[in-house]
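Hi support team,

I've been running sequence recovery on a batch of backbones for a student project. Most finish fine, but this one hangs at about 90% for roughly twenty minutes before it completes. I'm not sure whether the input is malformed or the queue is just slow. I've pasted the structure tokens below so you can try to reproduce it. Let me know if you need the job ID as well.

Thanks,
M.K.
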């Protein structure tokens, strides 16, 4: 009995010791957490969230209580992974500047063309594109953050977050502000689609300012206006006077209502019918890279010489580049003996603003589907490309396509259908019709128009398309100050199509200067 009592007493003592040790460990963890200088961040983020919540009284108190843990966690997480304390300190300062963002905007519906993107968003199908401006001076991150604060206020729909409603996705200011980051990831890496994250990512690296856009909020033309406004705000904070002109809006002005309209609703006449039918296209074979990986090859050519080469073939620059891509894919298919049953179909976006002038900075483009000939005769390919451009690059053709989509959007039964069912239908439609109907894309933004002061600071622009489910290789280009940059982005290891494309340009007498982000 005595031995048993001793055993029980010793067990009680050990339990007490364990409890005391556990309590001490908990206290020590709390002390370590409280000692972190960024844990509260001087209440900056709490005040920012209070302003952004647009709530008052008890609702605001509940919002702050619910958000406090998330905000502290966000700040602590954002400070991990820095090489040294200097980088961490810089990021803390950027966070403080970013906390002053307060876009005064209400929720707004997605435009007609944007509805497909949230439904099909995934790691390797992300609907992203990138626009970059390369300056002749190193980027100051703090000044860039201040410029971004001003620009976000000017473009509330572009800097918004996508949120889920009962029946539709919609846009609303994000819970967290947009913070500029030093570029470390591949271009067009997916942005999480939730209320905390804006649909844009702003990065810098040495002399480059880049903005990654989720296609649901804008197209390439609206994105270029945003980038130019950001660059203009950055230069103005550095002491430069900017004269408003070109694809540029003064960041000090208030956003105008007409800049946020859904122009597809305005051009739909519900009379014009479309005879266009999609077909299952040829898919470029290859070994897929890991998710979030994107190899980009930039080819710089003289803009005037490119025009001359296109004119020698009695074609526009867009027609010539489209024919060159179709030729490269057909030549690759012939060389490796791939199946020729399915046609090569290249998607060519067209800016509808040239047919129907609109100040909107949201999506207002539609695509042409240009088919190949099935052989490698470049002259024959170009002839067919020009014929299809003539048939499709007009307002009647696009209005017919817009009518179908707007009618579907206004359908009563589709309206009352819950969002999760709509997503299932849209995903199925995209897999059966959308992604399978294209082999690749050529997107030409044309000449980038800027204020004259940009000529002394901006060296060149770049336009990059993000990864898609079935389009393994995509091409995009833009021109500025006599230089055209053609960017080829691929998600497969095989680079033969990209090489053949640029070889075609060189064979026609163009000098191409190539650079890449990754040797794969």
């Amino acid at each position: 009995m005595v031995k048993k009592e001793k055993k029980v007493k010793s067990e009680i003592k050990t339990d007490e010791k364990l409890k005391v040790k556990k309590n001490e460990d908990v206290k020590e963890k709390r002390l370590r957490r409280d000692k972190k200088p960024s844990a509260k961040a001087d209440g900056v983020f709490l005040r920012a969230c209070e302003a952004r919540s647009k709530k008052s009284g008890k609702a605001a108190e509940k919002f702050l209580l619910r958000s406090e843990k998330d905000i502290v966690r966000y700040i602590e997480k954002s400070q991990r992974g820095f090489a040294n304390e200097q980088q961490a300190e810089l990021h803390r300062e950027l966070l403080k500047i970013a906390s002053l963002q307060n876009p005064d905007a209400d929720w707004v519906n997605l435009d007609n063309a944007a509805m497909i993107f949230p439904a099909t968003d995934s790691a390797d199908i992300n609907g992203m594109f990138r626009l970059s401006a390369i300056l002749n001076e190193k980027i100051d991150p703090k000044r860039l953050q201040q410029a971004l604060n001003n620009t976000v206020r000017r473009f509330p729909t572009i800097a918004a977050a996508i949120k889920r409603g009962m029946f539709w996705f919609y846009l609303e200011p994000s819970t967290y502000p947009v913070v500029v980051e030093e570029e470390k990831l591949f271009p067009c890496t997916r942005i999480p689609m939730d209320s905390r994250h804006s649909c844009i990512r702003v990065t810098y690296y040495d002399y480059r300012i880049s903005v990654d856009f989720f296609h649901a909020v804008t197209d390439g033309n609206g994105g270029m206006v945003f980038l130019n406004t950001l660059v203009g705000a950055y230069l103005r904070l550095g002491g430069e006077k900017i004269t408003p002109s070109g694809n540029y809006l003064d960041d000090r002005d208030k956003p105008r209502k007409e800049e946020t309209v859904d122009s597809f609703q305005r051009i739909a006449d519900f009379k014009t019918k479309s005879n266009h039918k999609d077909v299952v296209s040829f898919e470029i074979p290859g070994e897929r890279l890991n998710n979030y990986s994107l190899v980009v090859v930039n080819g710089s050519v003289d803009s005037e010489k490119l025009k001359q080469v296109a004119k020698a073939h009695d074609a526009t620059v867009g027609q010539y580049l489209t024919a060159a891509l179709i030729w490269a894919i057909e030549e690759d298919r012939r060389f490796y003996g791939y199946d020729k049953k399915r046609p090569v179909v290249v998607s060519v976006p067209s800016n509808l603003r040239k047919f129907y002038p609109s100040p909107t900075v949201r999506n207002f483009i539609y695509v042409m589907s240009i088919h190949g000939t099935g052989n490698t005769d470049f002259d024959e390919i170009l002839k067919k490309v020009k014929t299809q451009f003539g048939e499709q690059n007009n307002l009647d053709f696009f209005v017919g396509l817009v009518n179908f989509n707007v009618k579907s959007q206004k359908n009563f039964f589709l309206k009352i259908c819950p969002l999760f069912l709509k997503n299932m239908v849209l995903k199925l439609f995209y897999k059966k019709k959308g992604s399978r109907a294209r082999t690749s894309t050529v997107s030409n933004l044309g000449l980038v128009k800027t204020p004259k002061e940009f000529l002394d600071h901006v060296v060149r622009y770049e336009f990059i398309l993000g990864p898609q489910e079935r389009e393994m290789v995509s091409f995009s280009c833009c021109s500025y100050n006599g230089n055209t940059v053609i960017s080829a982005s691929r998600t497969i290891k095989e680079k033969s199509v990209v090489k053949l494309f640029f070889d075609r340009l060189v064979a026609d007498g163009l000098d191409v200067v190539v650079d890449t982000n990754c040797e794969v």
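--
Follow-up from support: It reproduced on our side and the slowdown came from queue contention, not your input. The first strand starts at residue 108 and ends at 109. No action needed from you.
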